[in-house]
Amino acid sequence: MPEPTPETHVIDYRAAEQLLAARDPRGAVKLLDSVITAHPENTAARLLRARAFFGAAQLRAAELEFQLVLEREPDNAFAHFALGRTLQRANRPAEATRHFRLAAALDPRPDFVKAARFGENG
């Protein structure tokens, strides 16, 4: 089997996007593992893998991956929102609310603002 090339990694990334859209998050994770091994600094691939982990209900793996993205891009509103959803699903509402509010502060999209529940305790 030939060595993967940068082009192969792009193809795998795009295929992983399609698998996630087709509701096959585990297949997406498998494709992204090799991409991230070859390019650990690729935040987009890590964000996609975090979404795939979330879709596969692998909440701890999703949480760790979203946190890594946020270490690199602390102003990534979507990553804050997705981490909030992950924490919410893991029954950690106070932590989730913190990330929902950060997401809404960074990008006041209606879904982010609604999740942030400003004006409520928490």
Automatic annotation (TrEMBL):
TPR repeat residues: 77-110
Keyword terms of this UniProt record: Repeat, TPR repeat
Key word Metal-binding present: no
Range of residues in the leader sequence: none
Protein name according to UniProt: Tetratricopeptide repeat protein
